[in-house]
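Input record (one chain):
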Amino acid sequence: MKKKSFIVAALLGSVLILFLFIWNEQREQSRKPVPVEEQQLTIYGESLPTQPDVMLAIDPSSQTILSHLYEGLYRFGADGSIEPALVEKLERSEDGTVYTFTLKESVTTEGNAIDAQTFVDHFQKLVDVDTNSPFSFLLADVQSAKEIGLGQQEPDTLGVKAIDDRTLELTLVRPMEGFEQILAMPAFLPQPNVEAWEELETNGPFKIKAIGDTTISLHKNETYREAEQVTLETITINSEANLTEATGMQPVPYDFDVSTIDEEILNVQDVPRSGVFYLKPNVKKAPFNDVAFRQAIALTLERSEIEDSLARAEQTTERLLVIDQEDAIAQLEGNADQLFDTVKKRLKKDELEIELLSFVDDEARQISAKLKKNLEQLDGLSVNIIELPLGEKVRKEVSGDYAFSLSGWQPDYPMLSAYLTQFETNDVLNSSRYASESYDQLMDQARSTDRLEERNEIFREAEAQLLEEAVVMPIYQAGRSYVIEKGYDHIGYPVTGPSYVLTFAKKYEN
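The corresponding structure, as predicted from the sequence alone:
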């Protein structure tokens, strides 16, 4: 009887999926796109790009524009997830260390081919110390990459080669299922030459049309290999906000009341991002060198107290691995007051005073004030907030000249390891000064694990150790909200990488 019920349920589920698929197809066919000349989108209130070099571009605006100008081995699709782009087929060797990519044909706006050798040259340049790319570490698992970075070998010894025009071979130092996911990041876009924005030779869905002091315009690239799949003719980025008019698309400012918009004309889209904000102690500075004190602080945190100070797309979280789809392995447990009392007795003090570094920013100011009030519930603790401009704040953290900081992290690639490497003992970004042999061993174990899910489970163990020792105290996940004129659809919103994907966007009649 149970087996029969299961079969019936499975059949009903299949019928429902088929119905939804047909319904969506019919709905799509019934919608009428506006004429070609009206397939335009203006994005207001967005920062203009500053760096046309894909290997050096670190600001979101530059990375987003570059992701529309070029197409690499992988890309962010219409739903924001990573999918093959110029990769027609991927094969891994039996030992999992050799990746062989069969490539699709692609040409630039000047008619030049993007082939396997293009990617060989690009990868070699990326790891070259003379390039000084902040993204060269993404190739650390490729054969000879570390030695090249240390100046011990030449870039042409990198484990990447062109077998023929359409076959690219990449050799890793160890098997690592899912490695190809990082190849969607903007740093890997095939850029034959770096020029001024308006002179870039590109192979992606769009090309530069014009650039000015407050705007940059992109136009559909007719030489793009899938030009027939691109509907938008023109995209214009305007740095000036335009929330008073119901047109185009624009990010919602932190203090904007979305209840004032006309819901018959505009939609609001909330987009989670990979960034996470947290309290970061310097574990070498007293009293944060005492794990009990850190745990007392972490257990006192009431994240709900700051919810009304967050932007609408931001969400409180107890996770460091905010992009993880699985539950955390463990949570910190204990009594904050009892732990704090043991610390005061050990230090022979009735009162403790700490400094909290914060940003010169309206949102950070509100959050810091509420955190101060929250943490001072510990009897005898006082918190002094120090607001600093971003550059000065970062310099103090990097030098270790701080004890406690409201900090944040935006990963450069879509893997759980992106959140964790900064806490390894010898990592150059380890401003927490955390040093743990067991943690380092977990990270090494994960790196030597081929299967992605097994590797991620080890990363969750590493996260659990950080949370249980209160080395990091997560507060909220980053996010952005956009106001979008009704009629626009198929806009992708990646969690990591470019802010949005407009390759498949269309404008329909309302």
